[in-house]
Write a structure and sequence with these properties.
Blueprint: H1 7-32, H2 36-43, H3 47-54, H4 62-71, H5 86-94
Helix pairs in contact: 2-3
């Protein structure tokens, strides 16, 4: 089924989403005053993987996203863009 979205556009959208999720995780982690190493220990994910997720270079599984959200006392949806900010997300990420 062709939705009119080219492969490169889907890849760009996914990369933008991963960077957005990573930034939100970093934001919540810093608010909680926790290092990547401390969070990694608590959620049983390697620190290097936490770093890659926060940089948007690794796609976290739903299980890992759940563990991270529980540790940070957040909801999974807190890490996802809201409809209102989709335009801002596009402009923010295109500037990086």
């Amino acid at each position: 089924m062709d939705l009119g979205i080219h492969h490169s556009e889907r890849t760009t959208n996914l990369n933008n989403l991963l960077r957005f999720i990573g930034r939100k995780i970093t934001f919540f982690r810093r608010i909680r005053g926790v290092s990547q190493a401390e969070m990694a220990d608590e959620v049983s994910i390697e620190k290097e993987e936490i770093d890659a997720i926060e940089k948007g270079k690794k796609d976290p599984s739903i299980t890992k996203l759940y563990k991270i959200s529980q540790f940070l006392r957040a909801k999974i949806e807190d890490f996802l863009p809201k409809k209102k900010c989709e335009q801002r997300l596009r402009s923010d990420l295109s500037a990086t």
